[in-house]
């Protein structure tokens, strides 16, 4: 008898509902719905169209057929605010909105970066929830708010009426104490964030209750908390053999790191801007955000808006024919974060750092992929150095696993084999946590990973040409003084 569960996986560019059928030794995944996620700028602020996304989820759940449970994961850091009646106060703001500009410095004046890091262990990214809340302080909306719910928690709340904050995603707020795993009330108090906004925490595997009858999806379906941060589900979905692995969860972002039992809260770790995000089963996702395929997605969007008829297949084919590591940028340059003309920004950065300026779409594509591979190298090496965890292999999961050129370049740059896949690691990690909570599989994280290895298609890339990457890395370090 197999158990069917629905995994809702919301990404920055689209949302998916997948149905997984799980047995002791079997696991298959079918996509039942896919819908666009198109942010909307309203009165100068970039928002998520959350009701459209919720509707996509509902349609997907209706198309899913009978399932025992639903689990929801999405990107991190963003939230909706509810009033005292539980009504949503406006559309959630997109983390790429510029309202958080300059806020990190403002927070640093209240709580030093060293204090903030030793409490939370979270990477300093300008869009973390903590900065979004400080940016919103004094607003009528925040004053009227009774509750804050992260995106997946908000969807779960609409489905069940239960307001809880799942811990893997809660850790990305930069308001959680990395040692206790609870909200840091001290931090919250010092920044003037009302502690009453923060819901009780729940964990992957917790039952959140049945879907409410008036939601209009099949009766009796339960909502189960999963690693509701998509990266937490993706890391749970990494088909690793033991613990000597690094991962690159590669989509809009590349999340690069290792899995640990304990956080690394050292000064060196802070300076390297590494995060200790909460993982499934009490693990620590020790990782750094690398700008990721966003740079390519946004370039493609720019070219199309300029009337160019580009396709990803052609770009990747043409880019693969160009010389490796000829022109590289640091993808972590904050200039690449907001939406807008990406090719122009890449050209500017190249001019600034003395790199050859890539002019046409294939050359720019090549520059992006080479630059990402080098950033993967830096992050893997830093993760190993700072955590003391040795690695023999890199698991590259998520949509980026489709991109053979990026996988090969990552193997070359990291001087390690890359095992690519599953593409749907996030949905698989989401589904396995549900299946386990329902008793359909009886496996720890390593057992779940063995099931993934046995059932999912993986591709292996051995490092071939490592010299070009090494010299480009050395060049970039000098040019960007990283
Ligand atoms: C990936 C991701 C990253 C997070 C970024 C913004 O989809 O969740 O882990 O840093 O989106 O939320």
UniProtKB/TrEMBL annotation:
Residue ranges of domain Carbohydrate kinase FGGY C-terminal in the record: 246-437
GO cellular component: cytosol
Name under which the protein is recorded: Rhamnulokinase
Similarity comment: Belongs to the FGGY kinase family.
GO molecular function: ATP binding; glycerol kinase activity; rhamnulokinase activity
This protein's UniProt keywords: ATP-binding, Disulfide bond, Kinase, Nucleotide-binding, Rhamnose metabolism, Transferase
Stored InterPro entries: ATPase_NBD, FGGY_C, FGGY_N, Rhamnulokinase
SUPFAM superfamilies: Actin-like ATPase domain
One GO term (biological process): rhamnose catabolic process
Species name: Asanoa hainanensis
Pfam families, alphabetized: FGGY_C, FGGY_N
